[in-house]
Each structure stands twice: as structure tokens, then as C-alpha cells.
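Chain X:
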Amino acid sequence: MVFGGTWITQNKILPGAYINAVSRGAVSQQLSDRGIVAFATHSHWGAEHTVVEVTPADFQNKCMEIFGYSATADEMTGIRDLFKNAKKLYFYRLNGMTGGTKAEVKFRIGDESEITVATAKWTGMRGNAISVGIELSSNTPDEPTPENPAIYDVTTYIDGIAVSVQENVTNASGLIDNAFVTFNKTVTLTEMVATATGGTDAPTTGADLEAALRALETYQFHIFSTDSVLTATTGDFIVSWVRRMREDNGSKFQTVVYAPIDSAFSVDYEGIIPIQNDAVVDAATQLTAQGFTKSALVYWVAGAEAACAVNRSLSNTVYGGSFLPFLDYDKTDFETFIKKGRFVIYRNGDSVNVLSDINGYVTFTESKNYLFSKNQVVRVLDQIAIETALLFGGRYMGKVQNNANGRDSFKVAIADVCDQLQDLEAIENFSIDNIDVYEGIDINSIVTKIAIEPVGAMEKLYATIYVE
């Protein structure tokens, strides 16, 4: 990774790209793509305290293996909403390391004690849906002997659906663990069918959330999100982490959280996109049984924000999620939500749309004005910061001399990035003269200033109609 962050004085120790964005008073100059989400949640199955990379193809083809459910199951409603827009997911299961138990498949022959045949690969209650069947193979001899033993087929099921079959096994030592269970290699094989029991979920704690954020620090993504209903402590912790990652580490991403205006923590920062609406997950929707709560809109919003192009806004975008947003607000409510920096979904005639693509930043200053509350503007600034850091780290850091020729080359490379953004109508009125690159205090440092004018999508119409 390229070290970076923001800077006030030229006193950095690590080589890297330190970039400020302020109001004005594979390494390539091709713009990198968007659409990567990091998501942390409580889960009934899956690798514990591990970042798992999931593509749309993985979700369609390996969903049972990764999440414990088929891609069309109600329990996967949230991840399906996320993948309606996202191109990649870094999934982190919050619970499982402490307190959870793995389900076990056991059977008994006659009066003997129960023997464990297989153990679920992961902790969690979803392991209780596993069963194992052992049956004689059609290839077994008519009269098995020690020299010519019986042959078995061993099948692993989830909810009665075969997910793994191993054929022609003569001894348990030949059993191969699969994506769902590890086998006891010492049992004596015999015909049986048994269902796993004893799998329990570990609780999710603040320490689990800390571990998730720590694990994700080395990954590159555009949106982080969690469907946890945050407390004052966990909310403040996430906001502080996002601020540190953006400003000290140079990791340019935003975070989508459920945080209505009565939340117990402040979201006054351009890196936080706080959702106002509750998701309606009452008994009628049958989604509470799958573990979803009023925070479930984060799935669709996270995917949509991550994939939103640098020259686009989600303002007035049709809401495409599966969860029903609470919509019983009036004009005064919406004005309050906008003033308090809330991302809100509203009823627009027969449609349900995003009101305004804004973040939680509301305390404007001379050096950071209202433009920073617009997610479209933040995307542009973050894109320039990301591309500049990639250019510097890949082509210049430790490779190009810090002289007039080297600095001019870097200036031209940055201008190429900005020209692409201008071609996309993400910025306007740009020329190479808007960039200054000069030698820093140290012999091995440079200072770059880039002046840009972001373009915003139309949101307000003020019209006067004259009658003659």
C-alpha cells in the first residue's frame, strides 16, 4: 500500500502521498473503477473474524458455502440488495470467535455411546441444518471381507439438499473434509443418516467491531457499512475510525450507517452517510425471523453509493432495495433531515426515490464549505486523491528525480487524470495551469496544489412564469 493522509506541515516520516482537499477562497492514468463494498454483520455461518472476498459470481455460485444459505433465500435479502449495484464485497462476520459452538452430526449403534461423525466447519446455528448420510455404494461387494471391504457413498446435506457427495469410500480415514463439515477420520463406517445439533451463535460485541475495522484497514474499497444498530459508543468509534482512515491513512472511502436524527452519536463528517429511514421489518414482512432490523436499508444504499460513478449523483434515484422504507414524512421533516445531513428516501408520486445524495457534514467552514456535504463532490475529490496517490506510488516514488523535469512530469500525469474527469463532466473549467508542483522542504519531497471545480447534478429548479 502507499502510505498517505492529509498534511499541515511537511513533517511526515513515511514515504507516501499526503493530500488535502479544501475549498478554494494497477498503476495507470486511466481512472480506477468503483463498486467495492466492505460490510460487517452478525451471521449464522461463515469464516469467523476473516475478510472474505465475494464477487457477484461467487454470490450466485458459492452462496451456500460462504453464507450458509442459497442466494435466493430470505436470509440473503440484504446481500442481494447490495449486489444489485456493487461489483465486489469484502464480507466480515462479526460474531463467532467467542461463545459460539459448532454443530455436530452424531449417531449411535445399538447401546453404544454416541459417536461424532462430522463437525460443522463454522460456529453458528446454521450448522444445525446440516445432515450427513452414509449408504452402501452400488459398487460394494456382495459379501464384504476385510480384504474386500464394503464401499460407501457419503453425502452432506443442508436443509435436505445435497451439497457434497464423496463416493466409493471404504474407510473413514479416506473421508475428505468439505466446505461444510470436517469428518471424524476414526469412526467405523456404517449406513446411517443423522442431523447436526448443538450449533449456536456467538454474540456480537464491541470488541468484534473493533476487530473488523482493524482487519479491513489494509483493503481498498469505496464504501464501508454495517447493519448493526449503533450505540453512542460504537457509533463514535466508527466515525473516529473513518476520520482517521481518511485523514491519517489516506484511505478515501465513505461509510453508510443507520443513524436517524435522534441517534446518540454525531455524524458531522463528509465520510459518513447516515440513513434516516427505518426499514419496515415487522411481522408482516417475515424478515425479522431472518435477523434483519430497522437498519436494513444500509445494504442497498451501500451498494448504490459504492457503484455510483464519479460523474453521477444518487439524488432522485429510484430506490431499488427489497426492504420497505418508512415513508411517512412531510415537507418540514424533509427540510430538517437535509439540514441535519441525513440521507433520506421519500415517496415521489408512484415512485420511491432518494431525496438528496448528501452525507452527514453540516458544520461548514471557510476551508471546507457546503460542497463537502455533497457525495458527488466527495467522490470527485476522493477519485483525484486515489489516482494521484496511485500515480505517485507506482511511477514516481523512489523512481523519478525531484527536479524540474520530474516535477513537470508529475504535473502532466495529474493533469491527464483531471482531463479525464472533465471529459466525464465530473469537473469543469480545468486546465493544466490549475496544478502547481514544487519542491518541498526536504530534498525528497514535493508539494502539489490542484484547483478543481466539481460539477453537481441538478437538484433545485427556481422558475418564474410570466403571463402576458
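Chain Y:
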Amino acid sequence: MHRVHTLIVALLLAGCGDPVPPAPIQNRVPVTVAVAQPGELQLFQSAYGSVGALEAPVLGSRVPAMVVAVLVEEGDAVTAGSPLVVLDSSTISLRIRLNESEILRVAATGRELEQRLAGAEAELVQKGLELGRVKEMLPSGHSSQNDIDLADAAEKKAAADVRAYGKAIEASAYAIEELKARRRLLDLELSWCVVRAPDHGVWEVVSKRVASGDVVEPGSPLLNLILRSPLKGTVWVAESYLARIDLEAATRLDIGADLAHLELVPRALGFQVEEQGRSLPLYFDLPNRSGTLRPGLSLSAAIPLKASGQGLVIPRRAVRSRAERHSVFVLEDGVAHEREVTLGLGSKTEISVLTGIAPGDSLAVLGVVNLSDGQPVRVVGEAR
């Protein structure tokens, strides 16, 4: 028995100096690899909201009239200035004709007054000459003071006639200007009898509020429109993220059930706080030339936050987390060595590492869940 023990010990001692053979290739854990590199980590904040109309006017009547025709149907797209509703203009047309007749009558009266003014001015000159002759004859006794008083009264009456005709001509001219101003207003009211789309953009008819034969008053609604393009996108952002939002960078927007995907810079940040969630609205102008987008569609946004340049950027899948402990596997000579790391900010796919690894370290990514410290690995490609 003693000899057997001695032989076993001898054999064990003889093998202590030999190197451990590497694991066969087929027994190594397959992994993909990524290199830890300094860089700016682009982070995004998710936000949700809906599509709405940037402008949604209710077109109303400006004059009392009967509806002659509604030229559009609900859902129609109309361009700026297109005629939409025709109102009866016969009453306004009659008032225009009466206005024109009144202008002609007042103008004729004015011309007659000008003729009378010319006669009164000639009469005033004549009476002035007569008053002068009577005064000249007074020293010779060929006229009396009574004659002078009569001539003076006649001249004053002629002067009063001149002034009266002058005032009447001024009043006539003022009346013509007033009638012309009223005509311009009547022309404007006549133009209101054809109700048109606003003077910009492409519009959609949402609803008709009247039909042919209806009688409307000023302010009566005729049509509901929305501005088709652009539409307004609104998402709500938590107040705590406002300082970190990059308002000059493009935000990815997903609209509806995979209906559209856009990248747009926000138009404005609202200041009306939604009290329950302490959120503020962020607005986007959504192009909609094809008309496929509609108010009421859901809207989700990936809003870029201001970039963080802290630490090294690595794939999030390279990190193994257990409770409060985070680690990665650094590959050296075909062996995975576990290193505990301190993590910084992260996105869905990447995360920054503050301590525990160095720039240029090769890290296991795919297959990290199957690794243990010191385990041989086989690199099968770069992580994507």
C-alpha cells in the first residue's frame, strides 16, 4: 500500500510542470465583440400626443341672405380663394343701382348749384359797382343816403347768395363722397355673397352647416374647415426633462399605426403646464400634402436630449447586471475576464461606462449571459 501511494504522488508531481492545454475551439463560447470608445452618447426622451389642426376656421356669413348654392361636399380639398358658398345678392345689387342713381342725382344738383353760384357772383359784382356809383353821386345831390343804404343792402344780399351757393356746393360734394363710400361698402358686401376659402394653404371641408334655400344672418356658420397641410403635432414632455431637450435637433415622429415616420425640428415649446403630469406641450408642423394624415391620430416622439460625453460608450447588451452590480467581459487572448464597471447615462441600445474599463478594450456582447470569469471564448463577429 505504501508503494502505491508513493507512485501516485510521484505521478502527480511529474505532471505539475506541464502547461494546461487550451480548450478545443468547438468548446469555446461563441461571442460577438465591440470595442469601448470615447464618444458622445445621444439620448432620447419618449413623448406622446396627437395630431390636430393648425387652423380650423368656421366660415360664417357676413350678410343677411338666402343660400343659393353650396359648391363643396364634406371631405373635399379646396385651394386658397376657391368659391365655396353662393348667397343671394339681388338685394345688394338693387341697393347698388339705387346708390348709382342717387350719385347721378346729387351730381346733377351740384352742377346746377355751380351755375347759380356763377350767376350770384356776377350779381355781386354788379351790385358792388352800383353801390360805388351811388356813393360817388352823393356829393352832387344826384343820390341820397337812402339810395346808398338800398344799394348796400342789395350788395350784401348778393354776397349772402354767393356764400349760400358755395356751402350748398360743398354739401353736394360731401354727399357724393359719402355715396361713393357707401358704394364701396356695397361692393364689399356683394363680394361677401361668394364665400371663399382663406387666402393661403390647402383646406379640407369638415362639415357643411347650411344647404341651398336656407336663410342666414351675419355670423351664421356656413362651413367648418381645417388646414390640411401643415397639420399640428403636439406631444407632452415631462417638466423635469425641459433643461435637457435639444430643441434645435430633429425629433423622430411616428404617426398612427405605422402610417408615417418623420424627422422634424420642433416649431415651438408651449408654456401651458398640464398640472396632473407636470408636462408641457411641444409643437411640430406636420407636412400633409397627400392628405393621408388626419386630426386625432396618435403621435409618438423620440426627442433628442443634449448629448453627454461622459465615459466610454459601449453596447447596452455588453453589460450584465445583477442586483446593484454591473459588469462586462473584457477579451484578452481568447479569454473573457469579468470587470466590474460604473455606469452612466444610457439609451435603449448604448450606455456610457464611467469606470472599470479602458479605451480600446474588446468586450463580449452577444453570448455574455453564458460567460463566467476566465472562460475561453470564440469571436464570431463584430456586434451590431
